[in-house]
Amino acid sequence: MQRLRGMDASFFYMETPTSHMHVVGALVLDPSTAPDGYGLGTVRDLIESRIHLMPPFRRRLVEVPLGLDHPRWIEDPDFDIEHHLSRIALPAPGDQRSLEEFVGGFAGRPLDRARPLWELVLVEGLEDGNVALVTKMHHAAIDGVSGADLMVHLFDLDPSPAPVEPPTEPWTPDVVPSEVSLVAEGLVNQAANPARMLRQMARTLSSLADVFKGIGSDDAVLPFSAPQAPWNGSISAQRCVAFSRCALDDLKTIKATFGCKINDVVLAATTQSLRAYLRTHGAPVDRALVASCPVSVRTDAEVGEVNNRVSSMFVALPVHLDDPLDQLDQIVATTTAAKELHAAMGADTLQDWAEVLTPGLFTLAMRSYSQLSLADRHPPLQNLIVSNVPGPPVPLYSAGATVRATYPLGPLIDGAGMNLTVISNMGNLDAALIACPDLVPDPWLVTDGFAEGIDTLLRLAV
To answer: Model confidence over 183-236: pLDDT tens digits?
Structure first.
């Protein structure tokens, strides 16, 4: 049995009937390179042979009564892999839009908390004979980096699967702890909470001078400073998704020409896309939007740990500027200020405050916020989330099938009905948008606009 860390548990508390805190991935595979064919049985055998390398696959959550303490992971004594695997066949023509529609529906359904928090669907019938693995795993178990590290165990560097060392010890399920023991442990931990909170307040106060200095920068961006956009408001439980792809070399050319970072190029293309989207919908473009960008704070010593080591920084997306190079220049300035402000706050500040949260109150607050539609009654915390995840620079294979595309999708939070994630993948940059269809009925305009933004910057660079 293992107690969740505060940051991991916070994603559990943040979940409401309309905000699903799971991470979704859609991987497009070419099964023609699989020597023995590729079907659901292939996937099942692959997972079973490597499941000892992926601990979250057999762990489920146990809540502490009355929300007295963070939940516990236990090795599920009722684990059955058949509860987590399924297959579907898309109707003809099996094009990208059909896959997007399926993934959107899949993302809109919550995971069963009575079982380990993951699900995998083999999607057949894609055009060109391809198939897709569509996965869903709760954010309480993984962040972007640890999720990628976890899923890499299902892939190989050549079509012939590499032999995997068996576990050194047989897997042993846990006995489900009693409510009495959970309450007792919870009370002990809560007794230490006031002292932990005082220490955290002292650490936070000690960094305030640097924080205020960062806030004083003209390029610094703060939460709740975002303008209202069409996709900001209370979200429903439904999801829609859209995918696009760019050549990674194009982003590298832009980066080298203008002396910026790849992430600056990503944010600049996002800015162009959102400016076009706002104008298409008759919305104002007189103020910069605010994007929340997840930042990994995982140290070298923590590489390989399956948990959340993530913070966030806020950056401006200058949709009010018309010239793409002016936009890029402004983004370079705002990301530099955001990094300085993030460093002043401390990489572990968010993690440490999450550790001292009162679980029951946090859960009640999040559900009340959603049920009362409070996101419609105040300025947005941010307009959207934009994530840039490092991906594999080399070809990958799943039981011999070649990975052709990778589309990761993060969760939505109430008030921000749009989340864009990009990942580098074998010389490409795969972009995936997840949104609330009530607020973003045409998500492909954003992903298509992102690719067009890269093309525009490339033309200016060469």
So the answer is: 888 777 776 666 566 665 666 555 555 555 555 556 778 888 899 999 999 999
Query: Closest Cα to residue 446, out of 326, 269, 328?
Result: 269
> 420-440 b/e with 16+ CB inside 10 Å = b?
bbbbbbbebbbbbbbbbbebb
- The reply to whether domains 2-162 and 206-393+410-461 share a CATH topology is yes
The owner of tokens 């996101």 is 375
Number of H helices, E strands in the chain: 13, 15
Residue 23 burial class via C-beta count within 10 angstroms: exposed 0-12, middle 13-18, buried 19 and up: buried
Compute the distance between CA of residue 140 and CA of residue 3 in angstroms, rounded to an integer: 12
What angle (nearest 5°) sits at the alpha carbon of residue 122, between those of residues 120 and 124?
160
pTM for the whole thing? 0.88
Residue 345: phi, psi to the nearest 5?
Answer: -70, -30
pLDDT tens-digit series, residues 171-183: 999 999 998 888 8
Nearest alpha-carbon partner for 140 in 308, 18, 255, 305: 308
Q: How is the chain split into domains, by residue range? A: 2-162, 206-393+410-461
Which residues lie below 8 Å from residue 424, measured CB to CB, with a gap of 6+? 248, 389, 390, 391, 392, 393, 430
Q: Which residues carry out catalysis?
A: 139
The packing angle between helices 193-206 and 208-215, to 10°, is 50
CATH fit for domain 206-393+410-461, picks 3.40.50.261, 3.30.1490.20, 3.30.559.30, 3.40.50.1370: 3.30.559.30
| Domain 2-162: CATH architecture, name and number where available | 2-Layer Sandwich (3.30)
Q: How far is CA 357 from CA 8, 159, 353, 401, in A?
A: 12, 47, 7, 44
